[in-house]
Each structure stands twice: as structure tokens, then as C-alpha cells.
Amino acid sequence: MSKYILRRLLMLIPVLLGISIVVFAFIHLIPGDPVVTILGSEYTEETAEQLRHVLGLDRPLYIQYLNWLGRALRGSLGRSIFPFGMITQAGGGDPVLELILARLPTTIVLTVGAMVISVIIALPLGVITAARRDSLLDNFTRAISVTGVSMPIFWLGLLLILVFSLKLRWLPPGGSIGDAGLKVMILPWFALGVAEAALVTRMTRSTLLEILGEDYIRTARAKGLRESIVYYRHALRNALIPVVTVVGLQFGRLLGGAVLTETIFNLPGLGRLLIDSVHSRDYPVIQGCVLFIAFFFVFANLAVDILYAFLDPRVSLK
Amino acid sequence: MYELRLTWRTLSKSYATLLGIIIIVAMFCVAVFASQLAPYEYDEMTIKDKLIGPTGNHILGTDQFGRDILARTIYGAQVSLLVGLGGTAMAMVAGILLGATAGYWGGWWDEVLMRVLDIWMAFPYIVLAIVLAWIIGPGLRNLILVIGIIRAPQFARIIRGSVLTIKEVEFIEAARSVGQRSLLILWRHILPNCISPIIVYASLCVATAINAEAALSFLGLGIQPPTPSWGMMLAEGRRYMFDAPWIPTFPGIAVSLTILGYNLLGDGLRDALDPRMRRQLR
Predict the structure, then answer these.
(1) Which residues lie below 8 Å from residue B130, measured CB to CB, with a gap of 6+?
(2) Across the A/B interface, how many CB contacts are shorter than 8 Å?
(3) Which residue of chain A comes nearest to B261, CA vs CA?
(4) Which of A179, A278, A282, B136 has its CA 20 to 30 A from that of B219?
């Protein structure tokens, strides 16, 4: 197993380097001079030169990349270009890493909470619908889950705010955990978790149905085992393996969905930081956020793969 | 032809798929005949009629500028359809070109392409969409380009997988042994046999493309005013949600319904094109 983990870690290195190149390239892909874009229409040539030097844009491209990578490896993702003007004097505004780390807890609470909610809803529903295939409940759940998958997060989020915050006044429409406690997270958890719940329900149902058709289930039934034991000990345990993968891979989608959810509910998370910096053209922060989210996603996938290998030993033998 | 009839017979037996097809056809008609169906122009402002609820003159109410919500929702279907179908078509063509050549010729090209796709897919798609939309800029054509770039890797992977399997089959060996050229074999014999997974994925891809367009427009990075887009209408209506809940409600229903249509069709196609499922459904 440790050999498998080591191999997977080594395989990550080129992917991580590739990600860093793509993220670095962003700033150079924008049409026009980034310095002019940052400074806007009114600037002096001297200020532009100064900023170009501070950002390192006056050096060859590969040197810029290596410098940037070297700094990133040492934990420095540069500084925000705001408050404007500071960058040309003292080297910039707040350090990007600090900004990211300050926002990270909200995003983690949001995504993990949404994941937990999706599993709590989806697993029992998946099992029940597989056990009662083609029943009224099965058809109803399938209809609800395909509707859930089809509802954009931002639309569901607005509906939840409209009903539970504006009309019923049960829950706050947004804010920060620090001010209002975990109560502010309930609606965002549901907005983000429902679509995932729908996916996991469908996955659990279809995997379980496939497994219930296997020979060893017929054998278990032929032995005279009780139906509940057949389901929980033999079928569900094996069905959980692909479900764990889907739940794990949710993380990427949840991180993406968090951008929208945080915008709708005004949550001060990483996604909001990304959107705010995109609107204010704060290049270093955009680069930092994207790099952080991509690394996070890659490591979450690695964790899922390792968990998968633990659950199904055949994987690591391949 | 027989294959097509069999697929249609299986499709038409599922009510959910039929519902999906009806929704898609209806939305298509709404988009094509928008100028005939809409009671007003989408940018016609009547300030004295602003923020009025659903009434006889304005069946779905008006927005903060007095523009008719029904007209804007109807015109919004055009943007949705163009980005959904255009983005998917672009992703499909790029994905087929990349995936088919990588799968058929293999070697360094396959190796390099797969590693690049690994890196590309390491970014959550909405994050990538936001950054690309920011780099390329807003607007309809750019949105189609963004969706095409983001979704092409998935198509490439699906095609590559199918090509890898099919190129080992005996009839391909037969074609090669009679001296047919590689490109011809790929075009005439291999690609037609990869079509099922492409169709299924394309249908689901339209749904995600429509969702992505709405999300980007919602965030202010997609379609720009005054062109109506459902996502942008939701973002605008958000500010008036308490006093005028009809502003975000109808575009929200329209976008969910359209995505539902493509999801239902995608699910139905998957079942109809999978021989195992086809036996069960027959």
C-alpha cells in the first residue's frame, strides 16, 4: 500500500507543475499589457515602469516563472495590488496567502457541510429506491433527483433565501460565521448539497441494482439469509465503493459550486475572494486563489484514490 | 437505419425521455420564434410601469426598468440555446479531433495530450470558466469559446477510449490489410462506431453548458446588458427579490426546465444506446 501511495504522489509532481504553469500563464494570456490594465487609463510612464519592475514583468518569461514558482514553494503567493498605489511603494497590499487563509475556513465549513448533508439525504434514498425498484416512491425520488440535478445552485439559493429568509424569516440570508454563528450556513449547505445529493442518490441506486443482480447475492439469498442481511452486509458494502469515489470527487464540484453559493449568500469564503478579485482585476489574488483551489482539488482526488485502494485492495495491485 | 429505429422505439417508451424531448423542442421553438412570440421588445423600457407584478398587460410582470419579463425570458432562450448548442458543438469537434488522433496513432502525441488533459481537468470547471471568461472577455461568442475549451477534454477522453477499443477489432484490421489509408479508416470505420457515447455525453453537455452560461452571466462575466440572459436576469432580480419576486422567478424556472429537458434526454439516450438496458426496456 505504501508503494502505491508513493507512486501516486510521484505521479502528482508533473500535474502540479503543469497546474503552476497554467496559473502563471493566466496573467500573460490577457490581451494587452497587464500593467496598463491594473493602472487604468490615467498613469504616468514612470509609475508603469515601477509597477512592471515590482511585478517582475520586465524580466524574461522563464525567469518570471521560476521566480514565481520559487516564491510559491516558499509559501509566498505575492501581494494583493490593493489598496491601490501601495504596490509601487511598499511592494503591495495584503499578502495573498494571508487573504486566502483567512477565507479558507468558511469555504471548508461550507463544502464539508454540504457534503455531509448530501450523503445524509442520498444514502438512505438510494438504498430505499433500489430496494423498491419501479415503485411509486422510486419513481418519485428519481423525478426529484433529476430535478435537483437540473436546478442551478444560484437559482436554488435564491429560492431558499426568498422562502426561508425573506418570507418566513427563519434563517439569515447570509453573513459570516463569526457574526451570526453556524446558522448562516444552513441555507448555503442545502443550496450546495441538494444537487450533489441527487447525484449520489442516483449513483447509489444504480450501483446497488447492479450488485443485486450478481451471483453472490443470489447465493446469499439461496442460503436463506434474511433480506436485511443480504442488503446491508453483502450488497451495500460493495455498492459503497464506487459511491465513496463519487462523494470524494464531489469535492471539486463543491469547490466550484462554493464560488456561486458564497456569492449568493454573501459568505466571506475563497470563492467570493476569487470573484471579487476577478471584478477588481487583482491578478496576484486571482492566481493565488486558482492555484490553491486546483491544488486542493488534486489532493482531494488523491485522498479519494488512496481511500479507494483501502476499500478495494484490487486497485493497488494493478 | 435499423439501429436508429430501435433507439427511437426504446426512447419513445420512456415517459421521462419524451418529456425531455417535448421541453427541448418547445424551448427551441421559443428561441427561434422569439420575435413573433414576445409581446414586447426585450429592451423596451416603460419607467412608469416598473416593478409591477403579473397583470393583464404584462403576464409575468416587469423589472426595475419597466421591461416585460415574459419578453425577456423568451429572448433569453436564444442566448441559452446558442451557448448550449454552440459550446457543445465546439467542444465535440475539438474533442473528436484530439481524442481520435490520440487514440488511433498513440505514441508521443497520445502521451502528451493525456498529460495536458490531466492538468486541464485538475481545475474545477466553474473556476476554469470564470478565469477563462475573465481572460477572453464577456459576450456571446466568447462564452461559446469558453464552454468549448472547457468541455473539449471530456469529449477527447471519451472518444480516445472508444477508438482504443474499436481499432483492435477485426474489421479494422481487414480494412488496414486491404490498404485503406489511416484517415479513411478513422473517418469511415472507427468514428461511426464511437457515436453512441458521444451523443449521450453531448446531450448532458448541453445541460452543463446552459448552466455554465447562466452562472457566468449571473456573476457578471457572461452576457452583458441589455441582451437578456436568464443568468443575468436572476442576478438583476436578486436585488428586488423581496418586493418583486417575479423578476428572478421566471428566468429561474426557464433555465431549470431547459437543463431538465437535456438531462432527461441524456439519461434516456444512455439507456436506449446501451444494449443491456435496451433489452430490459424492450
Answers:
(1) A259, A274, A275, A278, B216, B219, B221
(2) 118
(3) A150
(4) A179
Encode pLDDT of A226-248 as tens digits. Answer: 888 887 778 887 787 777 777 77
Q: Which of these, A317, A315, A293, lies nearest to A304 by C-alpha position?
A: A315
Which residues in B have their CB inside 8 Å of a CB on A?
Answer: 16, 115-116, 118-120, 122-127, 130-131, 134-135, 137, 207, 211, 214-215, 218-221, 231, 234, 237-238, 241-242, 245, 248, 252, 255-257, 259-260, 263-264, 267
Buried b (16+ CB within 10 A) or exposed e, A72-105: beeeebbbbbbeeeebbeeebbebbbebbeebee
> What pTM was estimated for this model as a whole?
0.87
* pLDDT tens-digit readout, A259-295: 999 999 989 999 999 998 888 878 888 888 998 888 8
Q: Residue A108: CB partners within 8 Å, gap ≥ 6?
A: none
Nearest Cα neighbor of B256 from A159, A84, A34, A277 is: A159
Round to whole Å and give the CA distance between A79 and A85: 12
Query: Distance between CA atoms of A317 and A111, rounded to whole angstroms?
Result: 32
Task: Please tell me if residue A273 touches chain B, with a CB cutoff of 8 Å.
Answer: no
CB distance B116–A18 less than 8 Å?
yes
CA B255/CA A154 separation, integer angstroms: 11
Interface confidence (ipTM) of the complex: 0.84
How do residues B194-226 score in pLDDT, each as one tens digit? 888 888 889 889 999 999 999 999 988 888 888
